[in-house]
């Protein structure tokens, strides 16, 4: 079994027996602690499920930097040099998906007892499952970035970016609703308060910032985020007033 460097661990708040881990390959692995037996007869080392967008299966250029569970047991996964994806429990690939990319990189499919048709079949099976919601616009290339849900019912998705901004999307539909300057360099960590509408952010700067939805002025949003086809390159082009009153306008202080 290949060694995967881990970047993120998340526990399902609705079922603490389940936790997900992810790191230097394309898969998020879901484990169930109930499979552990004190007498040593256990298959605890084997995931009960895997998650990955079908187009990233076998891609040895991507890894995962952040994970988060919602209160509805949805799984949020942030890829480096790619996007953020939202999985529901029925989108899993099962306990035996295509071998992960580090193993594939070291061996030919025939050496592993597999052929290209088997790998293609697994990718097709993944395609047939429901497609995960995707969140685009930020840049996750330079550092390990977290990802989080936000709102009393996890209605929003939040992430930092290499451009020094916080990005906020509506969970349902993936619409980008806020982009906020938060660091002169990179925003790495975003955490939401468990009981109230407050965000904490940190990055390369030495301070951390607390955000509350109490700003007097209307928030601004890039009206055109040009996504260059080359992986990992994004440009923010223009800003205009955003007038949806049902979304949060943030003010902040730093500590």
Automatic annotation (TrEMBL):
Keyword entries, A-Z: Repeat, WD repeat
Pfam families in UniProt: WD40
SUPFAM superfamilies: WD40 repeat-like
Keyword Manganese: no
Classification via SMART domains: WD40
Top-rank taxon, per record: Eukaryota
GO cellular component: Cul4-RING E3 ubiquitin ligase complex; cytoplasm
Matches recorded under InterPro entries: DCAF8, WD40/YVTN_repeat-like_dom_sf, WD40_repeat_dom_sf, WD40_rpt
Name of the molecule in the record: Uncharacterized protein
Lineage: Eukaryota, Viridiplantae, Streptophyta, Embryophyta, Tracheophyta
């Amino acid at each position: 079994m290949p060694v995967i460097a881990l970047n993120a661990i998340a526990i399902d708040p609705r079922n603490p027996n389940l936790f997900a881990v992810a790191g230097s390959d394309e898969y998020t692995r879901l484990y169930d602690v109930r499979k552990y037996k004190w007498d040593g007869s256990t298959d605890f080392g084997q995931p009960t499920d895997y998650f990955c967008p079908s187009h990233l299966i076998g891609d040895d250029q991507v890894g995962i930097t952040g994970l988060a569970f919602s209160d509805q047991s949805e799984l949020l996964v942030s890829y480096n040099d790619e996007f953020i994806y939202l999985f529901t429990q029925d989108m899993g690939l099962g306990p035996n998906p295509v071998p992960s990319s580090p193993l594939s990189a070291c061996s030919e499919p025939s050496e592993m007892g597999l052929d290209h048709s088997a790998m293609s079949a697994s990718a097709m099976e993944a395609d047939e499952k429901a497609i995960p919601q995707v969140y685009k616009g930020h840049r996750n290339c330079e550092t390990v970035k977290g990802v989080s849900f936000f709102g009393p019912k996890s209605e929003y998705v939040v992430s930092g970016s290499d451009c020094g901004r916080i990005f906020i999307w509506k969970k349902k539909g993936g619409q980008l609703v806020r982009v906020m300057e938060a660091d002169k360099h990179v925003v790495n960590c975003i955490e939401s308060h468990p009981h109230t509408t407050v965000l904490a952010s940190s990055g390369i700067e030495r301070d951390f910032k607390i955000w509350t939805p109490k700003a007097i002025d209307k928030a601004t949003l890039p009206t055109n985020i040009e996504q260059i086809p080359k992986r990992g390159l994004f440009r923010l082009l223009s800003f205009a007033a955003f007038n949806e009153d049902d979304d949060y306008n943030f003010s902040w202080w730093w500590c």
